[in-house]
Write a structure and sequence with these properties.
single chain; alpha+beta; Alpha-Beta Plaits; five-stranded antiparallel sheet; 4 helices; 29% helix; 29% strand
Length: 157
């Protein structure tokens, strides 16, 4: 068996995508930050002491998508040509969805997951002073398009 991210000596390497043609690609990821009922109420009322949680998390998520290659050692530096991070306060916490798009040689699944993770971390950071129980749950890719493997959608979402 051969591994794409190991060389013949077993050392980690970045896969060479130089010869691949750029194509339009996208990926969507989702996650959830579960918080206490009092925190949901504060989020809905705009009463979280640190400020506008959703606005900060949205910007943090977009920034996270653009910085993915700095965080994941074997991820390619690619052009993030579009990034949308949507957050919604629900009865048990904050739902997060991020869609990232590019026209490049490799996909943006990791960028979409990073956007969700960083947005979720930002929510936790913004509410931790009032809710130490806040926790991140169920970060996952739910869809991707483009590239050699084509389109894929997670069935249970």
């Amino acid at each position: 068996m051969s591994f794409t991210h190991l060389d013949a000596a077993g050392h980690a390497r970045m896969v060479d995508v130089t010869d691949k043609q750029p194509t339009v690609r996208s990926a969507t990821a989702r996650g959830f930050v579960r918080v206490a009922p009092e925190t949901v109420a504060a989020l809905r009322d705009g009463a979280v002491p640190k400020g506008d949680v959703l606005a900060v998390a949205r910007i943090a998520g977009i920034q996270g998508a653009k910085r993915c290659a700095e965080l994941l050692p074997l991820a390619h530096v690619i052009g993030v040509h579009g990034a949308a991070v949507d957050l919604a306060v629900e009865d048990e916490g904050v739902a997060i969805e991020a869609t990232v798009r590019t026209a490049d040689r490799t996909g943006v699944e990791m960028e979409a997951l990073t956007a969700v993770a960083i947005a979720a971390l930002s929510v936790v950071d913004m509410v931790k002073g009032m809710d130490r129980s806040a926790r991140i749950e169920n970060a996952r890719i739910v869809a991707k398009t483009g590239g050699r493997s084509g389109s894929w959608t997670r069935e249970e979402d």
